[in-house]
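Lecture notes, part 5. Sequence design as translation. It can be helpful to think of inverse folding as translation between two languages: the language of shapes and the language of residues. The source text, in structure tokens, appears below.
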């Protein structure tokens, strides 16, 4: 195994840890609505919305159909509630993971937290947002808009960190922060997909290492070479 630049972060940050632990089994004494949302999230992340049936969900939580329709009027309302809940959790994950004394440290810690979170999941399920984008982009405009909004929030947050790092000379400044942020998010999504496919951390780890290398400031020699080429 080749050496990695990513620090092996333990999930000591409680908010990051809770994001991962949410996919563990909830107590049977938990309110039925929370149990339904929790299990629906797990099933949807592994199977997708279309392949997750109401009967599968009820069997998983051990509840009757009446319990479901007491809280949700339809499978669609349940699905949107799953996304709303996941959106809030992912926002908290980003807030907790993007920490550090410098923009470079913040992004480095975020990369480590992403790797740790997916390692803890055993690379099962992948990313709910990437999964749903692939499943719903061509078939359900409302779901697609919702997921696009989550990606917009994520990209904007990464863009702010990169812009701050560029201003401090910690990241390369020859590419706009908005473009670099899109590249970071797209790279992470691709790494998650490949690690899920292969049930190995190596693809995601490799992507994160490459993103860190890509973000580094250009050397004066590289800058001169680029200017000469243009």
């Amino acid at each position: 195994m080749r050496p990695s630049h990513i620090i092996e972060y333990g999930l000591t940050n409680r908010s990051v840890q809770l994001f991962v632990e949410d996919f563990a089994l909830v107590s049977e004494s938990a309110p039925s609505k929370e149990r339904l949302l929790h299990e629906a999230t797990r099933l949807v992340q592994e199977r997708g919305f279309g392949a997750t049936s109401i009967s599968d969900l009820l069997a998983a939580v051990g509840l009757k159909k009446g319990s479901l329709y007491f809280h949700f009027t339809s499978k669609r309302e349940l699905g949107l509630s799953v996304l709303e809940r996941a959106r809030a959790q992912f926002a908290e994950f980003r807030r907790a993971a993007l920490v550090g004394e410098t923009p470079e440290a913040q992004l480095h810690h975020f990369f480590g937290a992403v790797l740790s979170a997916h390692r803890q999941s055993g690379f099962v399920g992948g990313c709910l947002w990437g999964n749903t984008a692939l499943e719903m982009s061509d078939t359900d405009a409302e779901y697609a808009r919702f997921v696009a909004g989550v990606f917009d929030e994520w990209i904007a947050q990464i863009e702010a960190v990169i812009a701050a790092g560029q201003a401090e000379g910690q990241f390369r400044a020859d590419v706009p922060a908005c473009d670099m942020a899109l590249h970071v998010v797209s790279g992470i999504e691709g790494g998650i997909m490949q690690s899920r496919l292969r049930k190995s951390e190596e693809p995601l780890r490799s992507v994160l290492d490459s993103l860190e290398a890509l973000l580094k400031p250009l050397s004066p020699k590289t800058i001169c070479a680029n200017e000469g080429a243009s």
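The translated text above is only one of many valid answers, since several sequences can fold into similar shapes. Residues 14-229 form a domain with the Tetracycline Repressor; domain 2 fold (CATH 1.10.357.10).
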